[in-house]
Amino acid sequence: MKRALLILSVLGMGIAQTSGAAEITFQPNNTLTHITNSSISKNYGSVKNIYSSNSGAYVSSNDEISQAIDNLSAQAKQKEYKLASLTNRLSYERQQQSGSALNSSSAPAIAAAHASRVAVSRSTGYCARYVRKALQIAGYEFTPNPSAYQYASRGTLSNAGFTKISNGSQSQVGDVVVYDRSSKHPHGHIQIFDGNDWVSDFRQSSISPYSDAYSYTTWRDSQYMDDASNRGIYLAMAE
User: Fold this and answer.
1) 3-state secondary structure (DSSP) of residue 145
2) Each residue's pLDDT tens digit, 200-239
3) Are 194 and 237 in contact (CB under 8 A)?
4) Which residue segments constitute the domains of the chain, with CATH numbers given?
5) pTM of the predicted model over 0.85
């Protein structure tokens, strides 16, 4: 017993000399000794507990530092969420701005204006050529098709940046309609809306160039899906 006290006293003196101060507690019937070093509290802002046992010594986690790390981690996550939210909002606003920017300088309006200018009084049978040239002049890139219906069936308009919309949608400048082929019209038909009329190789009196009903699909430039240019404004022809 005296020998154990002597060892602990020497251990306490060593810690005191090294750290400046030490508080030692022990239980005679227990092999675990608990030493609280008060100088560590000054150096690190909180108390650390040093334990020594038969298996050696170790230092426990610092509660305050651990809490600070948790707080910083939480703040970092909040900033990450905020940044993601701002990024999504910016993307949405750009999309909205793009959708509301349809004017005479926009690709759909340029294509429609050109088609309107070169249209003749009645059909020549070259609707695909007229509309194709109008789209290419406006900057749309694609491989020309020999038949009008193929601009829908081959994915040409889709690859050029158009999206298929409901046939019941209110017409918008630059919208393209493609009629399927039939026994009477093996090449189908293609036309573009200039703000007032549907135009192909000629200015049509209605959306359909036929006296009979045929199936068709309607296409719109994907960048201008949300535009509300259906207000009777002849945007395509505005200079």
Assistant:
1) coil
2) 999 999 999 999 999 999 999 999 986 544 444 444 454 4
3) yes
4) 2-61 (no CATH), 107-237 (3.90.1720.10)
5) no
